Amino acid sequence: MAINSPPSFDPLRFVAPVSVRSRHTLIAELAYFRALKRGFEPGHEMEDWLEAEAEFERRHGTRQRP
Could you give the count of Cα atoms lying within 13 Å of 55 in the half-sphere of its Cβ? Predict the structure, then answer.
């Protein structure tokens, strides 16, 4: 870790397990934190959502199959 770099932030560290909170809510929070990190620059909403959804799936492995 670089001397002046801020600590890594993991929003999922602060949320309840998936069984308590909805998948949609957790993905929305992850997307929000991605937008926040980028300074809420417009035009990346879909990208934020899809990346947040992929992050959720990597961590929870609960992909809903059709």
Answer: 19
Smallest CA-to-CA distance from 32 within 7, 52, 18, 62 is with 52
* 48 occurs within a structural domain: yes
Q: Which domain holds residue 33?
A: 21-60
State how far the Cα of 42 lies from the Cα of 44, in Å rounded to an integer. 6
Q: Strand, helix or coil at 13?
A: helix
Query: How confident is the model over 41-57, as pLDDT tens digits?
Result: 999 999 999 999 999 99
- Domains identified in the chain, total number: 1
pTM of the model: 0.61
